[in-house]
């Protein structure tokens, strides 16, 4: 096991509003890439502005990057991070059989949602500034059923599912180690090898799923993820490419 990856900063805080906001505030004076971990968040958020539950002992961190690709390519780092999360979970637990990846960027543990990712960017007029990749992992506790959207995958925690207790800082070290080589692979070779590795761990591949976009619900067979990161569903009207949606099993 190697140590902290070269070239990446590391900030650990007892408390902050949100590691996403903290990273975006710090990037003006601290050169990216760097990680920000907080043991407690007072204003955590998830996708589409939803609240993100943050019990003490769970993992909340943000990786700040300064990408040089167009925004559409930069967004594919959600797959890079979810693959890194998968690898870190295996390093920490030794249980490759227990984890899977749910499109677009969740990590499942025995079918329950263990971790999620949120991307935010700075910049204007189509020019990318900085990228913040927020990561939340239920290390010790998971949200209750009343805290999730009806029909969503039931949350779980590492402690509840596997009986393991891993500290946030120890998990940060593993995730940073897992992410760094994947970032280099992505920059050097593009999305193709990341996509191949991600698809090898994809949950419900070849099965019926429901994609809810906000405008419509699309039911179909999860067939693939294309070169742009779109979910491909085979429906009675043919294959649909879906760029953004919540997926329900």
Question: What are the key terms here?
Answer:
BirA Bifunctional Protein, domain 2; about 25% helix; 2 domains; seven-stranded mixed β-sheet; alpha+beta; five-stranded antiparallel β-sheet; about 250 residues; globular
Could you characterize what this model shows?
The structure is a single chain. With 249 residues, the protein is an alpha+beta fold. It folds into 2 domains: 9-199, Bira Bifunctional Protein, Domain 2 (BirA Bifunctional Protein, domain 2, 2-Layer Sandwich); 208-248, SH3 type barrels. 26% of the residues lie in helices and 31% in strands. It is built from 6 helices and 12 strands. The protein has helices at 19-26, 71-74, 77-93, 158-162, 168-189, 192-199, and strands at 9-13, 34-38, 59-65, 99-102, 106-109, 112-124, 127-137, 208-212, 217-225, 231-235, 238-242, 246-248. It has a 7-stranded mixed beta sheet with strand order 1-2-3-7-6-5-4, with helices on both faces. The chain has a 5-stranded antiparallel beta sheet with strand order 11-10-9-8-12, with no helix packed on it. Helix 3 packs across helix 5 and helix 3 packs across helix 6.
Shape: globular
Instruction: Give the number of helices.
Output: 6
Instruction: Report the CATH architecture of the largest domain.
Output: 2-Layer Sandwich
So, the CATH homologous superfamily of the largest domain? Bira Bifunctional Protein, Domain 2
Question: What's the number of structural domains?
Answer: 2
Instruction: Determine Rg (CA atoms, Å).
Output: 17 Å
CATH topology of the largest domain: BirA Bifunctional Protein, domain 2
Structural class: alpha+beta
Strand content: 25-35%
Number of strands: 12
Read across the widest sheet, the strand sequence of neighbours is 1-2-3-7-6-5-4
Helical amount among residues, as a percent range? Answer: 25-40%
N-to-C series of helices and strands: EHEEHHEEEEHHHEEEEE
Mean pLDDT: 92
Distance between the termini: 36 Å
Q: Mind describing the biggest β-sheet? A: 7 strands, mixed
Q: What is the CATH class of the largest domain?
A: Alpha Beta
């Amino acid at each position: 096991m190697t140590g902290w990856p070269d070239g990446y900063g590391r900030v650990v805080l007892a408390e902050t509003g949100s590691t996403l906001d903290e990273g975006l505030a710090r990037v003006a004076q601290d050169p990216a890439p760097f990680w920000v971990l907080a043991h407690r968040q007072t204003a955590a958020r998830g996708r589409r502005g939803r609240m993100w539950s943050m019990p003490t002992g769970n993992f909340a961190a943000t990786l700040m990057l300064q990408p040089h690709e167009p925004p559409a390519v930069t967004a594919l780092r959600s797959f890079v991070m979810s693959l890194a999360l998968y690898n870190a979970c295996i390093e920490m637990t030794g249980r490759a059989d227990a984890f899977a990846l749910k499109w677009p960027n969740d990590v499942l543990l025995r079918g329950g949602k263990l971790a999620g990712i949120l991307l935010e960017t700075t910049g204007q007029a189509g020019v990318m500034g900085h990228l913040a990749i927020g990561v939340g992992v239920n290390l010790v506790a998971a949200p209750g059923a009343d805290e999730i959207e009806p029909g969503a995958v039931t949350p779980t925690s590492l402690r509840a599912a596997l009986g393991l207790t891993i500290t946030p800082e120890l998990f940060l070290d593993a995730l940073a180690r897992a992410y760094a080589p994947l970032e280099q692979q992505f920059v050097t070779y593009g999305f193709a090898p990341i996509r191949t590795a991600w698809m090898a761990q994809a949950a419900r591949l070849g099965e019926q799923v429901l994609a809810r976009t906000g405008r419509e619900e699309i039911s179909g067979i999860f067939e693939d993820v294309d070169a742009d990161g779109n979910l491909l569903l085979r429906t009675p009207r043919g294959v649909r490419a879906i760029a953004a949606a919540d997926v329900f099993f």
